[in-house]
From TrEMBL:
Stored Pfam families: Methyltransf_11 (PF08241)
Transmembrane segments: none
Signal peptide from the UniProt entry: none
Gene3D superfamilies given in the database record: Vaccinia Virus protein VP39
CDD domains for the chain: AdoMet_MTases (cd02440)
Superkingdom as given in the UniProt entry: Bacteria
Organism ancestry: Bacteria, Bacillati, Actinomycetota, Actinomycetes, Kitasatosporales
InterPro entries xref list: 23S_rRNA_MeTrnsfrase_RlmA, Methyltransf_11, SAM-dependent_MTases_sf
Domain Methyltransferase type: 53-144
Taxonomic source organism: Streptomyces afghaniensis 772
Official protein name in the record: Methyltransferase type 11 domain-containing protein
């Protein structure tokens, strides 16, 4: 049964956006997963770590999954989050696992001592602060993270915003981030990148996605972008799912024994 544009948009606009639980999209949108299986790989790393920091944990869902799968729990686990609704959700989820969630804005220095952690993890940080990551890592400590890559989901972004300049499309490039990590004194042991197919099956899923992933179309509201939403709704009805591609890269970087800030 075909649902109306108004019904689909209203539903997408009403779903809560806190955290990084994407289960609402089941049957409405899909995204291929990177071959490296970040959360499962993180679990293995947690089993070998003693003190762990998860930067920009969102609602804590990835760390919660990884801790549940880890063969051994680290002695200390801490997470940071800057958006108050996410911080509250992460606290409720992670407190039973003994994880403290610290409210830290994404651009602020990390409120931890030098060399406090032997493992720092992060899934999709807004922007990695390499000097701070290097500072809080112990010598021989590891930064293990999955980042969003360049021009991710730009088929959708450019439907709403029009063609983007090369400087915007090339942001978050893995090789540029490699250079920044090395400039902070880290050794990049592994860096892998993949481009992954996404499908949006109805306009409600698009609305919810743009409300949840707010940096895709900054300032997105249904009212401001109603013409583009209606055009995309008609396209999905006529042609089937709207196809886009996300980009992801995996970072495995280590702090040398003789690192000096």
């Amino acid at each position: 049964m075909h649902r109306t544009f108004e019904d689909l948009v209203a539903e997408g606009a009403s779903v809560p956006t806190e955290g990084w639980d994407f289960s609402w999209f089941q049957g409405r949108a899909t995204e291929a997963r990177p071959s490296w299986g970040y959360a499962t790989s993180m679990a293995a790393r947690l089993g070998r770590a003693s003190a762990v920091l998860d930067i920009q944990t969102g609602g804590g869902e990835v760390l919660d999954f990884a801790l549940a799968q880890a063969p051994k729990r680290p002695l200390l686990a801490v997470a940071t989050e800057g958006w108050p609704p996410n911080a509250a959700k992460a606290t409720a989820l992670l407190r039973p696992r003994g994880v403290a969630v610290v409210a830290v804005s994404e651009d602020a220095p990390l409120p931890f001592a030098d060399g406090a952690f032997d493992l720092v993890v992060s899934r999709h940080p807004v922007r990695p602060h390499w000097d701070e990551i290097a500072r809080v890592l112990q010598p021989s400590g590891t930064y293990f993270a999955q980042h969003v890559g360049p021009a991710s989901v730009f088929e959708l972004v450019e439907h709403f915003l029009g063609p983007q300049p090369d400087g915007v499309r090339g942001g978050r490039h893995p090789e540029r981030e490699r250079a920044d990590a090395e400039a902070a004194g880290l050794d990049v042991v592994d860096l892998r990148a993949e481009r992954l197919r996404m499908e949006f099956h109805d306009i409600g899923a698009v609305v919810h996605f743009l409300r949840k992933v707010v940096w895709m179309v900054p300032g997105f509201t249904v009212e401001a972008y109603e013409p583009q939403l209606r055009a995309l709704h008609r396209r999905i009805q006529d042609e089937g799912p709207f196809v886009a591609h996300s980009t992801r890269h995996l970072f495995d970087a280590r702090k040398p024994e003789n690192h000096r800030l």
